[in-house]
Input
Amino acid sequence: MRRKGVGAPVLHLLMFLGALVTLAPLLWMIAASFMPVGEANSYPPRLWPSSPTLVHYRDLFTRLDLARSFLNSVAITVLATVISVLVNSMAGYGFAKLPLPGRDRLFRGLSAALVIPAQVGMLPLFLLLREMGLINTYAGVLVPYAASVYGIFLVRQYTLGLPDELLDAARVDGAGELRVFATVALPVIRPILVTLAAFTFLSAWNDFMWPLIVLSDSARYTLPVALANLVGEHVQDTELMMAGSVITTLPALLAFLLFQRTYVRGITAGSLKG
Amino acid sequence: MNGTLHRRQERAAWIFLGPALCLIAVFFLLPILAGLLLSVTDFDIYAIGAPQTARFVGLRNYQELLGGEEFWQALRNTLYFVLVGGPLAVAVSLGAALMLSAPRLRLRGLFRTIYFAPVVTTLVAVAIVWRYLYHPHYGLLNYWLGLVGLGPIDWLGDPRWAMPAIILLAVWKGFGYNMLIFVAGLQSIPEERYEAAAVDGASAWQRFHAITLPGLAPVFLFVAVTTMIGYFQLFAEPYVMTQGGPLGATRSLVLFMYEEGFRWWRLGTAAAIAVLLLLITLAATLIQLRLQGGRR
Output
């Protein structure tokens, strides 16, 4: 049999180099965050702190009040995840399993709306939330995450595989639709809900443009907004900014490592069935 | 009996779909329609306090945008990012996916996790990191280039290099996502086709050309279209790294919209930019569907 593609040593060398290039910025971010003041701006560049220090982390959490932004981010992300899973799981189930005239046409219409850039609605949404008094509130930041067409899509595709007989059996036993959903459907579709939760968590944690628009009071800033604000005043303090970047990005990385399998399933589910 | 059950289920359907549909209607569809309206008004900072003072101005916002230089520059910048960065990102994703799917690869799971890691990092945070990596004097990138006798390059300060620098960051940040989609696509190609080709003595390149590429076509179309739509929305990278500079070389359409709308509070003009972005995105999507869909 003929050899397939490049030889094994070359393949592994390329993969290893690729991994190094991919990780280098993140490793340097972590290393520089522990460097004493000024060490990240030396020539030749240092890759490792001469005497590791936590002073920048302390600075961020005391003097610069990043703890508050951290809590804002946690609160908004957790709320967004819970609401999104609740709203989208019910809607996805409804679109898959409950009869309604024009249901599938409605769903196709919603799916088509996915190509519309969110920015088109951002300005009126800002004015609307302003009228509702939701500017500079958690609720204002949360609104776009509550219901998502993509989330509904994920749940619907997964729920379509659930046998109707299972649901009907419960109905014959006299269970109401909400009971059927909670006791029969939910346990079966739980994997896709974990996927949806992981997706919402990461996108809410990492989002920048919408919180930047909605939040005007620095006490309400989420981490990305606070960080972008900080770099304006502290652009010279490389080590401090790296510590801030670590604090911002580490929870997202950890969440991903914990939920890697389920997160990856969400990505491929969207592409192959869509 | 059956009729009442059906009616009961229909009522339940509204309860299940209601919250999501209401939220999407009020906070997604309605604002998009309102955006169209907003774009034909002179809504500005005075109108924010008193919306009734905004007046209908027809297509004046569009005329001013299309007649001025700023919009065209932002469009050129965005197209540069989409047309150079998009294909580059897809190519890197495909290359990584092919290597990751090689049968003899070891530590596959580890490599996959590493390559994917940048996708889940916070864009603002890594944009700040890269800003320092690009530093003309102390940055690691110029240092390494110097070791092989290249540079120094003023990455973010030179109008010719600022957009390539942003593209490099965007490709690094995002290639892992499409890589996973390609990997799943590669897995869906039946192994027998490769075995049959091997029996026929096809070379690696022939197998790639005759089996892999056609097998990936549907996935490829999905990746190309979603990547392009996403790349049209370039915002946080230039916001954090260059503020649209130098000399406006990295001001994207969305950054331009943000500045007009939320810095100068010219919401009418900003809405017109958003509508133009929508039209351009739709046109580009249709062109791509036509080009790639037709080839199959």
Q: What stands out?
A: Chain B has a mean pLDDT of 91.
